[in-house]
Amino acid sequence: MCLINFQYKSHPKYKLVIAANRDEFYGRPTAAAQFWEEEPNILAGRDLLQNGTWLGVTKNGRFAALTNFRDPSEMDPRKISRGMIVRNFLAGHQSPEEFLKTLNKEDYTGFNVLVGDTNHLFYYNNLQGDITEVPPGTHGLSNHYLNTPWPKVVKGRKNLEAYLSTTGEVQLDSLFHILSDAEQAPDSHLPETGVGLDFERKLSSIFIKTPDYGTRSATVVLVDHDNHVTFAERTYEKGEFKEQKTFEFTVQ
After folding, report:
1. Exposed, middle or buried, 83 (CB in 10 Å: 0-12/13-18/19+)?
2. Are β-strands 213-224 and 137-141 bridged in parallel, bridged antiparallel, or unpaired?
3. Containing H/E element for 15?
4. What is the model's pLDDT at position 1?
5. Can you give the CATH number for the domain in which 189 is found?
6. pLDDT for position 78
7. Which domain holds residue 164?
8. Mean pLDDT of all residues in the chain?
9. CB atoms within 10 A of CB 133
10. Rounded Cα distance, 59 and 186, in Å
11. Kind of pairing between the strands at 14-25 and 121-125
12. Which are the contacts of 251, defined by CB distance < 8 A and separation ≥ 6?
């Protein structure tokens, strides 16, 4: 998952609104969002290579989402897959804060994670090592720290906040439209993350499409003040729309 735009406890109807894109190499095997057969409480997509996930919810109101920290020099195949962090939180019973305290930051390469339940939302990354309760407001998370002003984070956060400030009833298509923005940022605004200027350009858009790597799925999650959850996922095949699945339930 490479961009998570979200608004928390700032809307008259929804306590949490998420609009997120997962970017990955096209060749990495992936399952679309569904309730997992062996963990029927979990609704999430799935990385079929390591069996973890990047974003998911549960029937009892747990939520987690993860992004990698972009640092090509840090890759280490001996470490635990970061997608297992999301899976383990969703399958567990610890409070969000207690779960984060159990993580050994040395077990994983760089990551950011959001974990929460119906009342609290926490942010953690294993580079800074601090557990932070997310304040109300509109936020953005890509492959650096929460609200780092990368162009795609600034644009996604701004567009989400502008849309939510004008509507009481969120339309899924409007949030997916925000996530489909393929405009690249000017070179003067690009971060330097060690991947080279050409790839920095391609990664700077909210929606990414390259010959081998790009946005594989877009996910919208709405949780209203009555704890009714709407989870919608659009999947893409090499940048082209494939299908949309929508799930709705009320937290048990």
Report:
1. buried
2. unpaired
3. strand 14-25
4. 58
5. 3.60.60.10
6. 86
7. 3-250
8. 96
9. 11
10. 42
11. unpaired
12. 59, 60, 61, 118, 223, 227, 228, 229
Q: HSE-up of 190 (CA within 13 Å, CB side)?
A: 19
One-letter amino acid at 169 equals E
Name the maximum alpha-carbon separation found in the chain: 49
What is the full DSSP assignment across 106-128? GGSSSEEEEEE-SS-EEEEETTT
**Which amino acid type is present at position 235?**
T
- Number of structural domains (the chain) is 1
Q: What is the C-alpha separation between 227 and 92, in angstroms, rounded?
A: 20
> pLDDT tens for residues 162-192?
999 999 999 999 999 999 999 999 999 999 9
Q: What is the DSSP annotation of 204-220?
A: TSSS-B-SSEEEEEEEE
The token pair at 3 is 């961009």
Which residue is listed with tokens 């998570």?
4
- Give me 196's structure tokens: 């080279």
* Whether the Cβ atoms of residue 53 and residue 44 lie closer than 8 Å to each other: yes
Residue 72 has pLDDT above 80, yes or no: no
Measured from the Cβ of residue 59, the count of other Cβ atoms closer than 10 Å reads 15
pLDDT band at 59 (very low <50, low <70, confident <90, very high): very high
Alpha-carbon torsion 229, 117, 44, 21, what sign?
positive
Answer yes or no: is pLDDT of 75 > 90: no
String of b and e for 221-247 (b: at least 16 CB within 10 Å)? Answer: bbbbeeeebbbbbbbbeeeeeeeeeee
How do residues 236-251 score in pLDDT, each as one tens digit?
999 999 999 999 999 9
Q: Determine the Cα–Cα distance for residues 246 and 221; give it in Å rounded to an integer.
A: 10
